[in-house]
Amino acid sequence: MTDLSVYVRQNVDINIGSWWHVPKKIKEAIWGLVENAYVINVDHKKKILSLGTIRFKDFKSKLTREYVLPLIDGPPERSDEFLEKNRKNVENPKKLKQNHRLGRKGYARMVDDFSNDDKGRISGDNVYGRATAWKLARKDKKGT
Q1: Which of the listed residues 27, 58, 66, 95 has the most CB atoms within 10 Å of its CB?
Q2: DSSP-assigned letters across all residues of 35-48
Q3: Pairwise CA distance, residues 30 & 139, whole Å
Q4: Could you read off the pLDDT of 99-118 as tens digits, one per residue?
């Protein structure tokens, strides 16, 4: 019953210490999912939910083994390739003569915001030219 593992992972909060602390409501919901997925006798409910105990313990153990324990001694060493890419990415913004001021918005959403304006439209179309979009991206909130 591999689906039981999925039901447990999807419905039980990983911050819960053990299966015994899982609220009955959640256990009943998991049982309901099992009943809907399989033709199963209600007499097997206790056995199925005890398997949920094992699945929950295994999942928490895997999380600890793969994500917690490797970081106890500190983050892993970074490769020379990673450090070189990082150095280049730090240097690239310093080369810009004029920074854009769009934040997370991006060019497409900026153009949509200004599409109601007549400024920057090319021959009355709703399309901004690249140069106009570049200029708009470098204006501050005051428009300077």
Answers
A1: 27
A2: HHHS---GGGHHHH
A3: 55
A4: 667 777 777 777 777 765 55
CA separation for the pair 113, 103 (Å, rounded): 14
CA 15 to chain centre: 18
For helices 3-11 and 24-37, give the axis angle rounded to 10 degrees: 150
| pTM attached to this predicted model | 0.51
Distances (CA, A) of 108 to 45, 63, 85, 105: 54, 39, 28, 8
Cβ atoms of 32 and 86 within 8 Å: the answer is: no
Give the span between the Cα atoms of 62 and 65, in whole angstroms: 5
Mean pLDDT of 54-83: 88
**Cα-Cα-Cα-Cα dihedral sign, residues 36, 40, 43, 44:** negative
Task: For 5-14, write each residue's pLDDT tens digit.
Answer: 889 988 999 8
Residues 138, 98 contacting (CB under 8 angstroms): yes
